[in-house]
Predict the structure.
Amino acid sequence: MNQVPNSAMIEMRNVSKWYGQFQVLTDCSTRVSKGEVIVVCGPSGSGKSTLIKCVNGLEVFQQGEVIVDGTSVGDPKTDLPRLRAHVGMVFQHFELFPHMTITDNLTIGQIKVLRRSKEEAQEKAARLLDRVGLKQQAHKHPGQLSGGQQQRVAIARALCMDPICMLFDEPTSALDPEMINEVLDVMVELAKEGMTMMCVSHEMGFARKVAHRVIFMDQGRIIEDATRDEFFGTPRSERAQLFLSKILSH
Amino acid sequence: MHGDFDFSVLVDSLPFLWTGLQFTLKLTAVAMLGGIALGTLLALARLSPIAPLARAASWYVNIMRSIPLVMVILWFFLVIPLITGKPMGAENSALVTFTLFEAAFYCEIMRAGIQSVSRGQVAAGYAMGFTYGQNMRLVILPQAFRNMLPVLLTQTIVLFQDTSLVYAIGAKDLLKAAEVAGKNYNRPVEMVIFAALIYFVMCYSLSFVVKRLQQRFAFKR
Ligand SMILES: Nc1ncnc2c1ncn2[C@@H]1O[C@H](COP(=O)(O)OP(=O)(O)OP(=O)(O)O)[C@@H](O)[C@H]1O
Ligand SMILES: [Mg+2]
């Protein structure tokens, strides 16, 4: 598709991980170029969350290599907090800090990690809250917001850190159906602006609209790593075909 | 004389009882703040992946919790001067002993509090770029503290009652003051009843606060 040789933002080489005897990830390799949007799907327990958590070192892996923007995540010499500060992450259950206001949720990382001044951080927070349509909620606590609103705040919180790429772990699967689109709209917009994104998601409408590639995982392996059109045309593996027919039928 | 109470002496002795109550309150406050601070550090040590540190903290807590407080009080009062070579005074000895002793109990409460914070919150803090220390200070401990506030206060009520044990080393707390005043005015029974009433009123109102807090938290979550 793309003729220009892209530089890799995320590169995974033969990543394997075990929980004791149980192997969660087996030989996972993939590459996400700058500006690319990747959707990761697969059945429950297949290791999707574990895979993207290896990207920012929230999960340790025993074999292989993960390189983010030229930095090796598994290298003990790597300053992980510094790397993570620029890799945005959005969780299934939002994980806003419940004891802080929305504004504080958006400024704390900027102030404590990026060492921005309070004024600068607040200005940025206000701008990004406005962008996700939640300017009015700045003074509230997370518990006072709906799930969809909390997830949009969580995306804004990650964007406040000027991320070089964004990781999403099933950002809409804990939401009531009527709130899914408000979150997906924000993600689509981000994708269109050229943000590098790795999204664990079963929202195939979203994948069709903005994904460059789709990764299908099963039992800790990357079974399929195809361009969007290939994937939705005819997935090569039977497992992926079966999975697709199941989630597209409802 | 039997059944012949005279509570009028109470008014005269109030200033004296107040000095005793002041020490009781000071001891409670110091042991609470110091105990929570030290207890939190102990909890962090117990949860630390560094095995010797976790083991040392766990020993400390278990030893403190298996010895009667009154023995710890006596032991400290008698042994510390032998080590340092100079007497410490009953009051100072009590302040140090209570802080060290209560820390073991606050440690267990804070440990439960830290573990009550969800893994998702911990991950979110690290994903933000926080170091271990920042994540503890900014994300985990504030939530742990809030979740455990009713239990911390309940422990403080127990602490407040236990301060009367400094009687054993002659520190001048509320109970000691009541006893001395009772002797001076020759009205020991009235004085002890009055002291008991003060303990009762203070503990009862504190438990009331705890109950209200628990209701508020139950409502919110
Ligand atoms: N801390 C752990 N200890 C042991 N096994 C674990 C642990 N965390 C996850 N697992 C196992 O690893 C496997 C992969 O988990 P993971 O959460 O990555 O799957 P997933 O694809 O994200 O699933 P889901 O769609 O349910 O979120 C699962 O079988 C899970 O039970
Ligand atoms: Mg998952």
Summary: The interface with chain B takes residues 53, 56, 58, 80-82, 84-89, 91, 93, 95-99, 108-109, 112-114, 143, 157, 161 of chain A (CB under 8 Å). DSSP finds nine helices and ten strands in chain A.
